[in-house]
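On to my pick:
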Amino acid sequence: MTLEPLLRAPLAVQIHVATVLPAFVLGTWQIFVSRKGSPLHRAVGAIYLILMTITAITTLFIHQLMPQSPFYGLSPLHLLIPLTVFGVYGALHGAHTHNIREHKTAMISLYIGAILIAGSLTLLPGRIMHAVVFGG
């Protein structure tokens, strides 16, 4: 493992990683450990949603996958941005209206889609995080 590829990466990638890694830890804790509805769960959840929003916004400035795309460097992975934003909205809406089912569905969908699936795709050969984790 080496941080060299990340240290050489554009600032948007560095900010993206700096927000998504703690979001992964907090999201995992929220799902598997926290006492749902407690003040700590709510506070950590708010931080998680802020981190996920920043992560989604920084993605707009990451164009390494398809820099020559006719859509200003955006790739199909950028379709996860509105899904992330809608997930954050759904989680907040469910929490504020006390619709636990909506909140839970949005939070788990956000975690699986934006953290686990998108995160797994960053480990593919040729990606910066592949070089960080596996060297090369």
Remarks:
- The chain has a mean pLDDT of 93.
- Residues 44 and 83 are 21 Å apart (CA to CA).
